[in-house]
Design a protein that fits this description.
Elements: H1 2-12, H2 36-44, E1 49-55, H3 57-60, H4 68-79, E2 82-89, H5 93-106, E3 109-113, H6 124-131, E4 136-138, H7 140-149, H8 166-172, E5 176-178, E6 189-190, E7 200-203, E8 207-210, H9 214-228, E9 241-247, H10 251-265, E10 271-275, E11 283-289, H11 292-305, E12 309-311
Parallel strand pairs: 1-2, 1-3, 3-8
Antiparallel strand pairs: 4-5, 6-7, 7-8, 9-11, 9-12, 10-11
Helix pairs in contact: 4-9, 5-6
Length: 326
């Protein structure tokens, strides 16, 4: 009983976010667990690991196919960032709060995709603001860019920024951002391209909020790259090196050698992978790491032991042979 009362007391004492249109009396009533100093430290640390959060009922319901996480995985690989986790979650406040807090604490660089549109189910900004005890603030520069760059959609030819209408309120929701007044604006809001008004909103120093539209997601992440490169383990941005081998042998036949090889090269930071290709005549073996010179020296050995050859693209030497076992 006493434990439950204590838990209830802690819940009631929890601070809540405040919003631009509310009075200051509705602000934080207790010291936040998430401080500006913590966010500042996260925003400057070396980027070794990453996490990706795909937000959207439409993805979980099968209406939309998520391509952003696959693109982000390739993006991280090209920069030498170790992508540790991808999660797909619903447009649900509690899930967004829990996932963002957890990933922000666990990884150096986190992106979210989806849920920042004008409709009622676009709750990413509000949920992340709540997760980190921040207000939602109308960002004036983002609003100015929106007015200048956005084009009226079909059916909105008579839209006016000067009239207080439901359509105007819906548009404003897309530039009401989680915002910490104790941090520099440039550390919280980035415009990735001159022809885009959609901002990259950075929260708690490492949560980067992106739209779910693939072409915008990709363009904005590409525009962010120059800011990330100086913080990488390899500031030259060379990324990770991958060597592909095509083998006609079933996985069961090469498993012993690959196990021995993996143990031998682990201390060099090299991972050995084996991937069956169902319905194809050849399977794939990979070496992934940063020591290109050492990995290249292993090529003749691997080719010999898997009775295959190095390829540049998986499947480039496929034929019509039979299935291989997994």
């Amino acid at each position: 009983m006493f434990a439950r009362l204590n838990q209830l007391g802690r819940h009631l004492a929890r601070s809540t976010p405040y919003y631009l249109h509310q009075s200051s009396a509705a602000g934080l009533s207790a010291p936040s667990r998430f401080t500006a100093a913590m966010a500042q430290e996260r925003s400057k640390r070396t980027i070794n690991t990453a996490g990706c959060i795909i937000i959207g009922d439409e993805v979980l319901g099968g209406k939309t196919v998520d391509t952003n996480s696959a693109w982000f995985a390739k993006y991280c690989f090209s920069l030498g960032i170790n992508l540790k986790r991808i999660e797909v979650i619903a447009d649900d406040e509690d899930e967004i709060i829990e996932t963002c807090r957890r990933m922000s604490s666990a990884y150096d660089f986190v992106v979210t995709s989806g849920g920042i549109g004008p409709t009622h189910d676009d709750i990413t900004y509000a949920s992340i603001a709540k997760a980190f005890d921040l207000p939602l603030v109308l960002h004036e520069e983002a609003l100015s860019k929106m007015k200048r760059l956005s084009k009226p959609r079909p059916g909105q030819e008579n839209f006016s920024w000067d009239e207080d209408t439901p359509a105007r309120k819906a548009k404003l929701r897309m530039v009401e951002l989680p915002y910490d007044k104790n941090l520099k604006d440039e550390d919280q809001v980035i415009f990735a391209a001159d022809d885009l008004w959609v901002p990259i909103n950075i929260v708690n120093g490492n949560i980067h909020i992106f739209p779910g539209i693939p072409r915008l997601f990709e363009k904005m992440l590409t525009g962010l790259k120059p800011r990330l490169v100086p913080r990488l383990t390899d500031p030259e941005g060379k990324g990770v090196y991958r060597v592909l081998f095509s083998t006609p042998m079933p996985e069961s036949e090469v498993a012993g050698y690959l196990t021995e090889l993996a143990g031998r090269v682990k201390e060099k930071g090299i991972n050995v992978g084996s991937y069956p290709r169902w319905g194809k005549s050849r399977n794939t073996v990979t070496l992934v790491g940063r020591d290109q010179e050492y990995m290249d020296s292993l090529i003749p050995e691997v080719e010999k032991n898997v009775k295959g050859r190095r390829v540049q693209v998986e499947g480039e030497d496929d034929d019509d042979g039979s299935d291989k076992d997994a």
